[in-house]
């Protein structure tokens, strides 16, 4: 590539780097967008500047230099009428001016800027100190019951309605409002603290200059009031905390000018420059080879176009007052200059003008945005790279035309324009396009870059990360939402009985022939009608318990205690970061028991994002010892005790590691080799590297490691200390793992130079010149490095996907090696490892120079540059020589496969929504049990058309046809009838299909025309993987499923890119990783590891849902008894609302007598223990189907209450009414309060006994609480009636307790009340048992005794599953024949068919580092499949010349599966990776006859001694340097 005109240095062998965009494009034409933006710069009529167009316009009258800058010589009179923008650009574009006067049209009458921008201060909290009380009360009175209770309190203020004490009546409502407000305040305070931490974080901002884009921040009176309120509340809270904690740390009082602790890295950074610019920012050398050309570059361009663009106007006079001062994030404004340092977090969306790198490169970690921890390269604008200091910023004069704020993380378009003076030419209009590659997004972290200087373009809620986050929702539990309906039903019942009382009482007062007309003092209302009206509201007060306010108070208590128990569960405590499970929303614990869909992020959630080099095949020799999750799953399904085998394997690996380390130390005392970092455990490799088995293999192994050390783009980071280390930062974690293994084997990358790379090869430091680096992208699936060796030879090293490398190998060469290597790679892939192939090509100098000319020509092309570069790269990456292959394990978090399997058995569907690429997501899907080889993989994908010729309708029609065709396979059409059926069906789909879709295709299927069909198709798939999706798309998918299927959803993630879906789901779970707490800030629950989700959902969620449903039903039941007991008494009082019970009984009934038993059942009840809940996850399905709380259950309990109210009232009444005995004090028992006491005692005992019968766990605490509740009514009656405060009720206890009839009633009434309930429960458990009833019987018989042993991980539940009616078997569907179709659409078939498949481990062969599509899957024939128990034992065949436990173990497993499970498939030799890769060989390759039917049976002998004609003729010179000869 031609170098910039400003760089006059010539290098003999300059390194060039070819980079293609690897980001996801989401618009039809980025080029058209840039044209439109740059045209709009001069669209204003008053502008005197010359108009210009970007390089994408065919009408450009200027010429573009190789540095991407456009020089315009003549004004363009018109703009392109065809310039279009996308619908995403709705909003107002912004133009920013820097050190230029603001044009008149951009000012208002007072001279202030017309455009206003959002502040950089963000708030994810829902409340402020000033808005909390009114806003919280407003939210609480969205609950219809609270409105009713408030209305009742108001009624009591009017004595005419019979109210006695308005203050006492208001206490319950005040209590529940206060408790709920305190809970909300605590939850919101946590968010506020995190918001303040971000808003007050430090950033270096340019001060002492005028930012013309924003007006001076005049704080309004309202904002002053809000600020003062906030300060007052903050001081008040600090004062309270200081009282609680006398010995508070003084460190809490640090000022905002101190260095900020990075949220992401938790590490302090000291500024490399003072606040007064005393220390010059010296650019550091690029960690990557610089872009340039060799002296012999034939490319010649216009001299003016070669001039380097420069924003600085060196003739401009400046004051010199500008300085970079430390300020807070919240004070940043659009148009500010900022300077950022290594490891800083980005405070806003910043356009990069200059970096410490000569080439303008900087590296960012986008974990918070897309979940990826690998580094991404961003480039400074070419015109801004001369900016270094504050004085340069003062002299720079330019303007930026930017698109409006929009949430797409992968797209940004803008243009920068300036005037530049050229010698002999004068001022010229200059412009340069700005893309997403020049933009640093808020939330990213700057890595491996000393400093960056840029300008702020978007702030606060206009930044992309905040636009994707969405507003903080106010979540309510599903039961709480459904409760409103039941409350309305009770309102209906209440209205009917109140109306009945009003009518009857009004009619009775209207009679003139009744005794009431003679012996009473007249109606209270004066007229019968008015009396009836008053009676209605009096009845409303008396019968208000039918809408129990005590229910809402108790539910708050229950949910709070449930949250405390979840927090206290030691089994969900993650010790490495000292983090328990933290409930951040206390009111949705019961929602955890109804989850049907879980949406999970991948990176950092399912995986550790830690790549470990495990195995390799070099010159036909397999190396490496490992025991992977996929291998354990395969062995487990074959009946092997994987716990025992795993322990033995780890012991063997530990011994192998010791041997390998000893051997490596014998070769070379490598100071950078650390035992704890070594992952490639291969003592036989070390032996071969030492030459114990001949020079040929020694040289092959050494050259292979040299290739790994040279072919990469990693950055070496030296970590000083007593034991120095070298760490590697890479754009791909796979690449870092490869280079780290080369380091451990003695080929250490020390660092980059201006034209190459320094290596320590077996103790000797050697410099290798890198001529070209052709980087990896998703379409090429390979990368190459052209290296000039010290002996002058030129070698191209290439690594990439298996299919890509095999298709580019030298024709007619290495036939045997290809076959054996392919078989090794298949074996590695079945172990769940990601495979890569390594190859090389030796180039003559003439070949290279000719190719270099073509490359430089393509690199300087103005049109289709990327396509031309790829075409040129393809020419040289041919005729390769195979060196070997690698196998890398993407480490899952502990327990992820088991957790997913448990959740699948529970009937929960798991979808993966990730920002990662499709191939990587598929790899993880196999490793963690989401996918297996029995599944047909449905891939929905449309290719983006950057030319803009494809319309939206064409994309939609293409996907519509494909989805319709897929639905037809399932016998569906996607209409409303299918949707209605899908909403009713909660069964897990058959594990035969999985669906994969990328973000661009997802954009179209979420269109209203396709959404329903897509949803129904996904419903038929056991797993769904959405890849390359933005945070907003994640939320849209969650919303589609939640609202479309009316199901309960849970989202789990660990980064800021997951916040949107966490907030959208019914329950959001954040993983508090070692780094980052962004997801935790917005989550409802925070856990330390994904595996804790099984306990949170299957144990606490199921318990909470069942407990809550039972507690609510019992609350309605007990208030039904109490209310209707009073109602029946009104029959003898003309319904005049005479109180049956003494007033203290009415108050204490819900407060003391019956309040604790429902709370106990809501907090402590357990149908089965936690271990049994995990052993039999199928018990959870009752929650998915929402069977615990139904309208049928509500009405059954209401009917129970109605029946028992009749018994509770009439038995005591009839006993008392027919008694002629007169009490000794002369008072008749028929006095109403004493009759009320006769009724109240058996009513309380009946209610508490009924609740006890509905309780599964009769432990001592439950029985004690219910017994105390029963005794309290006796205690209160005795104490209260012994005092004259009881009035007419004085002495009632002694009187009624002395009556035998009372005790008869006390025993008889509860028995008659409970009898129907007891009989129905007994019959149900015997004849129609629930799943839990069966399991409880098995627990009683001792079948689950071993499950209670603490720490036992293996939970066998086969006996239980056989008894469950809801247990699901694995059903197989016949796969439809598919003829010639795209590889992405082919089903995933064998190499290995699992004997059983629900959600089990799936061994696979189609596993590559970039994709699985190189394995062409043939059509499956319905072949009888033997079960594992039927497979005869096959003796393990040991390696011929040495013991390799991992290799032999895997080989035996493959032989067993090949012979016993699917011999007929292997007969064709068509379905294996080895067979597939052979198809990529040239026609001149000579195929060899297989030795047998099995995969491994063809590996009959070791391939030691394979002769490679040219590449491996190595020898060492006197300097111990590895030489190679063509």
The helix tally amounts to 46
Question: What is the CA-CA span between the terminal residues?
Answer: 28 Å
Structural class, judged by helices and strands?
alpha+beta
Report strand %: 5-15%
Rg is: 38 Å
Contiguous low-pLDDT stretches (5 residues minimum) are: 1-90, 247-306, 1222-1227, 1349-1440, 1458-1473, 1481-1526
How much helical structure, as a percent, in the residues? Answer: 25-40%
Overall geometry comes to globular
| Extended strand count | 38
Mean pLDDT: 75
Describe this structure in words.
By secondary structure, this protein is an alpha+beta fold. It is built from 46 helices and 38 strands. Strands 1, 19, 20, 23, 24, 25, 26, 27, 28 and 29 form a ten-stranded mixed beta sheet that branches. The protein has a nine-stranded mixed beta sheet with strand order 17-36-35-34-18-30-33-32-31, sandwiched between helices. Strands 2-3-13-12-11-4 form a six-stranded antiparallel beta sheet, covered by helices on one side. Helix 4 runs parallel beside helix 13 (549-567) and helix 32 runs antiparallel to helix 34 (1156-1163). The model is unreliable at 1-90, 247-306, 1222-1227, 1349-1440, 1458-1473 and 1481-1526 (pLDDT under 50).
């Amino acid at each position: 590539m031609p170098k910039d005109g400003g760089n006059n240095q010539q290098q003999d062998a300059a390194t060039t780097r070819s980079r293609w965009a690897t980001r996801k494009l989401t618009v039809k034409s980025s080029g058209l967008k840039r044209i439109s933006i740059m045209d709009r710069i001069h669209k204003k009529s008053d502008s005197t500047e010359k108009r210009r167009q970007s390089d994408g316009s065919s009408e450009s009258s200027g010429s573009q230099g190789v540095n991407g800058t456009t020089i315009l010589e003549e004004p363009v009179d018109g703009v392109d009428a065809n310039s279009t923008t996308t619908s995403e650009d709705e909003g107002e574009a912004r133009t920013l001016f820097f050190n230029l006067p603001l044009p008149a049209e951009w000012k208002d009458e007072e001279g202030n800027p017309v455009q206003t921008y959002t502040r950089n201060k963000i708030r994810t909290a829902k409340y402020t100190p000033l808005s909390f009380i009114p806003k919280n009360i407003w939210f609480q009175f969205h609950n219809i019951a609270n409105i009713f209770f408030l209305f009742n309190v108001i009624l009591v203020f009017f004595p005419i309605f019979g109210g006695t004490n308005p203050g006492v009546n208001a206490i319950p409502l005040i209590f529940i409002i206060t408790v709920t407000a305190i809970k909300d305040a605590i939850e919101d305070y946590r968010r506020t603290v995190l918001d303040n931490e971000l808003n007050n974080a430090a950033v270096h901002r340019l001060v002492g200059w005028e930012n013309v884009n924003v007006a001076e921040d005049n704080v309004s009176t309202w904002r002053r009031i809000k600020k003062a309120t906030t300060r007052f509340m903050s001081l008040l809270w600090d004062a309270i905390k200081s009282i609680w904690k006398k010995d508070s740390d003084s460190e809490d009082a640090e000022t905002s000018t101190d260095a900020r602790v990075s949220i992401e890295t938790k590490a302090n950074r000291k500024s490399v420059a003072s606040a007064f610019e005393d220390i010059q920012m010296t650019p550091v050398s690029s960690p990557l080879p610089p872009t340039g050309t060799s002296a012999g570059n034939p490319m010649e361009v216009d001299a003016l176009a070669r001039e380097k663009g420069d924003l600085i106007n060196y003739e401009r006079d400046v004051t010199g007052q500008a300085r970079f001062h430390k300020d807070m994030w919240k004070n940043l404004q659009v148009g500010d200059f900022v300077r950022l340092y290594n490891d800083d977090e980005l405070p806003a969306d910043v356009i990069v003008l200059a970096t410490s790198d000569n080439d303008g490169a900087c590296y960012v970690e986008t974990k918070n945005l897309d979940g990826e921890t690998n580094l991404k390269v961003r480039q400074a604008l070419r015109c801004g790279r001369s900016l270094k200091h504050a004085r340069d910023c003062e002299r720079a004069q330019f303007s930026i035309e930017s698109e409006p704020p929009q949430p797409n993380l992968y797209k940004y378009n803008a243009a920068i324009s300036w005037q530049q003076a050229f010698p002999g030419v004068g001022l010229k209009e200059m412009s340069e396009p700005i893309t997403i590659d020049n933009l640093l997004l808020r939330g990213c972290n700057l890595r491996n870059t000393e400093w960056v200087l840029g300008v702020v373009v978007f702030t606060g809620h206009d930044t992309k990360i905040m636009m994707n986050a969405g507003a903080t929702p106010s979540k309510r539990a599903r039961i709480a939402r459904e409760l409103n309906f039941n409350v309305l039903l009770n309102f209906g019942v209440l209205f009917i009985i109140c109306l009945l009382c009003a009518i009857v009482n009004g009619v009775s007062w209207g009679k003139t022939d009744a005794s009431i007309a003679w012996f009473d003092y007249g109606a209270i209302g004066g007229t019968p009608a008015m009396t009836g009206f008053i009676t209605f509201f009096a009845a409303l007060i008396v019968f208000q318990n039918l809408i129990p306010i005590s229910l809402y108070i108790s539910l708050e208590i229950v949910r709070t205690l449930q949250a405390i128990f979840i927090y206290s569960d030691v089994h969900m405590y993650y010790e490495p970061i000292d983090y328990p499970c933290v409930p951040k929303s206390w009111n949705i614990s019961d929602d955890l028991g109804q989850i049907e869909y879980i949406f999970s992020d991948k990176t950092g959630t399912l995986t550790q994002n830690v790549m470990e080099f495990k195995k390799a095949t070099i010159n036909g020799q397999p190396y490496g010892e490992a025991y992977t999750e996929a291998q354990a799953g395969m062995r487990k399904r074959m009946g092997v005790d994987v716990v025992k085998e795993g322990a033995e394997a780890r012991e063997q690996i530990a011994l192998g590691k010791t041997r390998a380390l000893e051997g490596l130390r014998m070769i070379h005392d490598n100071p950078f080799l650390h035992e704890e970092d070594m992952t490639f455990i291969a003592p036989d490799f070390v032996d071969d590297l030492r030459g114990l088995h001949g020079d040929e293999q020694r040289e092959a192994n050494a050259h292979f490691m040299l290739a790994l050390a040279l072919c990469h783009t990693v950055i070496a980071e030296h970590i000083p200390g007593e034991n120095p280390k070298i760490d590697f930062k890479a754009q791909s974690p796979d690449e870092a793992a490869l280079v780290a293994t080369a380091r451990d084997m003695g080929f250490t990358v020390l660092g980059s130079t201006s034209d190459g790379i320094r290596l320590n090869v077996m103790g000797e430091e050697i410099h290798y010149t890198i001529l070209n680096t052709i980087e990896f992208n998703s379409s090429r699936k390979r990368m190459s490095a052209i290296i000039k060796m010290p002996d002058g030879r030129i070698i191209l090293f290439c690594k990439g996907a298996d299919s890509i490398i095999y298709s580019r190998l030298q024709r007619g060469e290495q036939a045997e090696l290809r076959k054996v290597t392919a078989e090794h790679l298949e074996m590695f892939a079945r172990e769940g490892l990601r495979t890569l192939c390594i190859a090389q090509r030796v180039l003559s100098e003439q070949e290279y120079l000719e190719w270099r000319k073509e490359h430089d020509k393509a690199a300087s092309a103005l049109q289709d540059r990327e396509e031309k570069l790829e075409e040129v790269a393809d020419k040289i990456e041919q005729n390769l020589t195979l060196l070997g292959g690698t196998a890398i394990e993407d480490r899952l978090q502990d327990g992820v496969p088991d957790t997913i399997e448990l959740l699948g058995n529970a009937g929960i569907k798991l979808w993966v929504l990730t920002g990662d690429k499709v191939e990587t997501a598929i790899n993880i899907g196999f490793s963690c049990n989401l996918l297996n080889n029995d599944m047909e993989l449905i891939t929905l994908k449309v290719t983006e058309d950057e030319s803009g010729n494809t319309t939206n309708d064409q994309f939609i029609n293409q996907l519509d046809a494909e989805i319709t065709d897929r639905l037809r396979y399932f016998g569906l059409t996607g209409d409303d009838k299918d949707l209605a059926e899908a909403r009713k069906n909660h069964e897990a789909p058959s594990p035969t299909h999985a669906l994969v879709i990328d973000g661009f295709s997802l954009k179209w299927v979420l269109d209203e025309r396709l959404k329903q069909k897509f949803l129904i198709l996904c419903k038929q798939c056991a797993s769904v993987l959405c890849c390359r999706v933005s945070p907003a798309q994640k939320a849209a998918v969650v919303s589609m499923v939640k609202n479309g299927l009316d199901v309960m959803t849970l989202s789990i993630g660990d980064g800021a890119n997951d916040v949107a879906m966490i907030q959208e789901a019914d329950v959001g779970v954040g993983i508090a990783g070692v780094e980052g707490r962004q997801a935790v800030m917005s989550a409802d629950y925070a856990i330390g590891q994904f595996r804790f989700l099984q306990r949170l959902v299957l144990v606490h969620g199921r318990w909470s849902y069942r407990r809550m449903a039972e507690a609510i039903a019992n609350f309605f039941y007990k208030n039904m008894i109490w209310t209707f007991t009073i109602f029946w008494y009104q029959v003898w009082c003309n319904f005049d609302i005479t109180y049956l019970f003494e007033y203290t009984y009415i108050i204490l009934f819900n407060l003391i007598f019956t309040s604790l038993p429902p709370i106990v059942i809501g907090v402590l009840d357990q149908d089965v223990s936690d271990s049994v809940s995990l052993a039999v996850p199928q018990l959870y399905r009752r929650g998915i189907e929402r069977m615990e709380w139904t309208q049928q259950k509500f009405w059954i309990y209401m009917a129970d209450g109605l029946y028992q109210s009749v018994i509770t009232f009439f038995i005591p009444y009839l006993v008392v009414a027919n008694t002629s005995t007169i009490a000794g004090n002369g008072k008749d028992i028929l006095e109403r309060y004493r009759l009320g006491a006769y009724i109240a005692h058996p009513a309380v005992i009946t209610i508490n006994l009924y609740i006890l019968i509905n309780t599964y766990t009769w432990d001592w605490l439950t029985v004690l609480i219910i017994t105390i509740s029963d005794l309290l009514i006796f205690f209160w009656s005795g104490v209260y009636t012994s005092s004259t405060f009881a009035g007419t009720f004085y002495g009632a206890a002694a009187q009624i307790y002395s009556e035998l009839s009372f005790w008869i009633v006390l025993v008889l009434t509860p028995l008659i009340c409970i009898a129907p309930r007891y009989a129905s429960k007994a019959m149900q458990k015997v004849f129609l048992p629930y799943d839990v009833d069966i399991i409880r019987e098995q627990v009683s018989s001792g079948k689950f005794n071993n499950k209670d042993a603490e720490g036992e991980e293996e939970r066998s539940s086969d006996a239980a599953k056989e008894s469950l009616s809801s247990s699901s078997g694995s059903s197989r569907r016949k796969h439809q024949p598919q003829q010639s179709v795209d590889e992405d659409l082919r089903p995933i078939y064998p190499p290995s068919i699992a004997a059983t498949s629900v959600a089990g481990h799936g061994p696979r062969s189609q596993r590559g580092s970039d994709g699985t599509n190189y394995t062409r899957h043939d059509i499956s024939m319905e072949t009888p499949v033997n079960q594992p128990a039927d497979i005869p034992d096959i003796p393990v065949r040991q390696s011929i010349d040495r013991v390799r436990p991992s290799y032999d173990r895997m080989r035996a497993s493959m032989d067993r599966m090949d012979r016993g499970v699917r011999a007929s498939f292997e007969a064709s030799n068509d379905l294996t990776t080895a067979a597939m890769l052979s198809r990529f060989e040239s026609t001149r390759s000579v195929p060899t006859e297989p030795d047998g039917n099995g995969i491994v049976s063809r590996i009959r002998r070791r391939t030691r001694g394979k002769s490679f004609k040219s590449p491996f003729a190595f020898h060492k010179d006197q300097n111990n340097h590895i030489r190679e000869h063509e």
